[in-house]
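Suppose you are handed a protein chain with no further information: no name, no annotation, nothing but its sequence. What can you learn? This example shows the usual starting point.
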Amino acid sequence: MESAPDPQRKLSWRKIHRSPLFDVTQFSILVILIVWFFSTGTEKLGYNWQWYQIPQYIFTHDESGYYAGPLWEGLMVTLRISGVSLVLAFLIGLTTALFRLSHSFVAQIIARFYLEAIRNTPLLIQLFFIYFVLGPVLGINRMTSAILALSLFEGAYASEIFRAGIVSIRRGQWEAAYSLGLSTFDTYYWIILPQAIRRILPPLTSQAISLIKDSALVSTIAIYDLTMQAQAVIAETFLTFELWFTVAAMYLVVTVTPCLLYTSDAADDSVLV
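A reasonable first move is to predict its three-dimensional structure. Written in structure tokens, the prediction is:
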């Protein structure tokens, strides 16, 4: 007669499987395999690796101490642009979602026009249009142009995520809020959005990662972000593979971090349940 599975052991394996350490281990194995694959390929091409030169472009030091290298300075610019753009994109997305769900014909037309215009044109063209056309008219610099372009582009996709989350809330929640005498604003603030945010957190995390990667396009308007700094160093040193692999690793660390944080929170919640 077969013994029943131990629920405690099953719970323990589930907790390990969903832990950030397990994800980090998988990611490390994947990185090792990729490095081995590319090193083998470049070795057959006769490429001379010079990894020992890379640290000086991340941090430099002299007698007075350590200083940020060009890649680290570019990473800080990328994070600053991405952080501000992310906040604005979510605000724009939530506002657009509320416009689409409102009973105002004008608000729905504005939201529809914005969504169709942004989602059906490339981000690069939008960036050029804002910087070269609207920039001189409005008197905004390249940094503001980059943040505005990223915010508008990512906000269009975030709006559909917000709208889907709001629509997914059962009708009874709305009726219960109205029966208690809550206004529309209070219903959204206290009842609907807290439930919707929990449901849309995974796709919002993916959208944040997409924004960070899309921020590399700001290098096309001469903003010295991580990508632009790498291009400048490559032009001087010709360390093409080493620098691009380093840049890719830095982007990976930045984009994987929010995924690990969300996975950790989700795992804790599932264990509690």
